[in-house]
Amino acid sequence: xxxxEFKGFIKINNLFSATDKVLLAVSGGADSMTLLHLFxxxxxxxxxxxxxxxxxxxxxxxxxxxxxxxxxxxxxxxxFYVKHFSTQSFASKNGVSTQMAARDLRYTWFEEMRxxxxxxxxxxxxxxxxxxxxxxxxxxxxTGIKGLKSILPKRNSIIRPLLFALxxxxxRYATETKIEYKQDSSNNDNKYWRNKIRNxxxxxxxxxxEDAVSKISDSMQRINQVNNLYSDILLDxxxxxINASGNIVRIDLDLFKEKHAHLYLHDILSDxxxxxxxxxxxxxxxxxxxxxxKSSSYELVVERSFLEVSAFTNECDEKSLFLxxxxxxxxxxxxxxLKQSVINISSFSKExxxxxxxxxxKSKLHYPLKIRKWQAGDRFVPFxxxxxRKVSDFLNGLKLTTREKKDVYVILSEKEIVWVVGFRIxxxxxxxDNSNEIVKLSI
Length: 443
What we know:
Oligomer: single chain
Structural class: alpha+beta
Strand order of the largest sheet: 3-2-1-4-6-5
CATH topology of the largest domain: Rossmann fold
CATH superfamily of the largest domain: HUPs
C-alpha cells in the first residue's frame, strides 16, 4: 500500500520523467533511507547518486552515519558523495541559527552537485510531519500567510516524493521491510524549535485528535489556494501602485485609498527585508516627509506622494576626493565620472552651459579642487543670483527626493563651493569678459 501511494504521488505530481536523472539527499535516518530503498526498487534507472552532508555537529555519531551510507552505497553500486561542513563557524559568521546554517549549506551544495553531475532533480525526504512542524515555526516567526502554505512537492530542482506520508507511516514501512537506518540523537534535543514542536507540541495535538497532522496538512493545502488568490490580487496592486526604475522602487501613497492597504504594504515591504515592527512604524510615518528606515539590505524614505525604496550600501558618504590640475578624468562614484578640460578662449560658446557641465574661470580656481557630498550648512552664490543661499534650500527648491538630495556632490576651491554638481555653478567662478583661461568640468 505504501509503495503504491509513493508511485502514485510521483505520477500525480509529475515529479520526474523516466529519463530524468535524480540525486538523492540521504542523511541516514528513517525517511531518507526509506526514500533510497524505494528508488532502488522502483526507479533505479533514475537514481544517479547519493549526496550526504556531514555537518560536524555530533562527532563520532556523524562519522558513523557517513560510514554507514558509504558502505551501503558501495554494496549497491551507487555513486556516493559526501561534504563536510564547519556548520557552527558558518552560523556564527552569518548570524544565523545552527539549523538555518545547516539548511543553507546543504541546499547550496545540493545545487552545485546537481549542476556538476548534470542531474535534473534532487530528491529529499520531507514528509507531512515536517510540513506541520514548519507551519508552527512560521507561526512563531510571524511570517504571515506565506508561511502557512503547504510545502510544494516540486519546487525548481527540489522534489519531495514522501510528502504524502506521515512519519509514522514511513517508520512502519521501514520496520516491515527491514530497512536499516540510523537514529539522530540531536532530534531529542529540545533546545531547537523544530525538535520542541516535534517532541512536545505535535504529540499533544495528536492526543486531542489522532489524525491532527493529516488535518493540518489538509488545512495548509486550502491556505495554498487562498494564498494563490491573494497573490493575484497583490500583483494587480503592485502593477497599479509601484513604479520601479533601475534600483529605485517608488510606492504611490494612493495605495492607502485601498481597503486593505496595510496588508498589501506589509507584503510589499517584506520583500525588501523589512520586518513587521518596522512596517508598522513605516505605516505610522507616511505623513512624515523625510522619515527614514533601514532593513538589512534596503532603505526606505517617506516622500510627499510616495515611499522610495533603494538598495542600501555601506559606502562612506563623507569620503572626499581631490581633482588636481592636469587630471582629465576622475571616478567620483559608481554612478558618474568627472571629466576636466581646458577650453581655448576663442572657442568658448554659451552653448557649453548645461546642468551637467561647469564652465569656470580658471584664474579663480585654487587646486586641488575638493569633491565631497554636500553637508548641512553648505552655502554658495547660485549662477545668475546675488547673495549666498544654503545648498539645502537650493535643493529643496528643485523638489528633489530625500535620496536624490543625499547623492548630490559639491566641488570646492579651498572652502568655496564652485559647483553643485549636476545643477548649478557658483556665480563667483563664472566666466567674464576678461577671462583668459576656461576650465570645463563635466559628468
